Amino acid sequence: MAAASRLEVRNLTRIFDGKTVVDDASFEVRAGEVACLLGPSGCGKSTTLRMIAGVDMQDSGQILVDGSVICGAGTRVPPERRGIGLMFQDFALFPHLSVADNVAFGLKGGARANRNRVAELLDQVHLTRHRDSYPHALSGGEQQRVALARALAPRPSIMLMDEPFSGLDERLRDGIRDETLAILKDAGAAVLLVTHEPHEAMRMADQILLMRDGRIVQRGAPYNIYNAPVDRAAAAFFSDINILVGTVQGALTKTPFGDFLAPGVPDGREVEIVIRPQHLKIDFHRNGHGPVPTAENGTAAHGTVVRARFLGRDSLVEFRMDYDGSVLNATVPGVFLPKPDTTMWLMLRRDRVFVFPRG
Ligand SMILES: Nc1ncnc2c1ncn2[C@@H]1O[C@H](COP(=O)(O)OP(=O)(O)OP(=O)(O)O)[C@@H](O)[C@H]1O
Asked: Name one GO molecular function term (predicted).
């Protein structure tokens, strides 16, 4: 077990050429927790990680470990004394060193203790039989495991990982993510993992830190971030979305799918009603009659299939809606693939709808 540590950043800001790329970011990663810094390319994730690692320096703000400042306010602990393990996208293995020597690289103990530690780690990542191989002779997944073992060898109390799975074959990734997560949990370090893939963050994270334009715009458990996004862009980051636009009257917005509450939004203001494709329900056209309205699904609206694509487990069906000609996308079970020009009824899972004031 690593000595348990808590990583905290307070008001971290970094400016490059007059552009603020990390903007007043504050967050905390507890010992044993995996936090994923998630956001689109260029939003400042790697820069944040580099400052915590100590290879870049913030313009303002502080980095703390267990409540003590390691960088900021006149203090700057050098990278090698921060007790932080690093793992990067390209694994950065030493090509001229064997697997065992790569793993041993950062160890400072006596030869015997180091040998034992390397053996323990190689066993943990299932690479004992490759201990004398060189990196070029290993698959991508094996190289990833060597890099993980090397980063964990000195028992860092904090681990920083920058897109550690992106170099891997898509089919292998989920398995390797799960194995890595088990090893990290076992090590007990505070883990900050950078990724631009929502799927990866949902699978790995105890806490997601959603970043946009250098700012942390939302933080929370994957379930909460997915089911209660702070704005339309946060909702759209995790899946395709449909948007209905309406105007508020008396804290309500009328739509063809029924009325939706828009608490706190003044009358006359436009709102966007956001719904994920999997939360649209479809029903057959029964001689012009639609399904009976319910509290759960609201009122049905009428639309025509434009096209339907079979995606395996699901089908994605595109509808043109009668009420204004707009297009809505619905995800339905893959056993179902309606033909173009079929007319159908659509309903919304009312509890899964998000209402945001329009930008
Ligand atoms: N040393 C630097 N000098 C100038 N600009 C930089 C420097 N490092 C990063 N940037 C800029 O800062 C912004 C944030 O970069 P960063 O690498 O942190 O983003 P990211 O979210 O990790 O993106 P990606 O996933 O593509 O790596 C980018 O616009 C980048 O061009």
From this structure: ATP hydrolysis activity
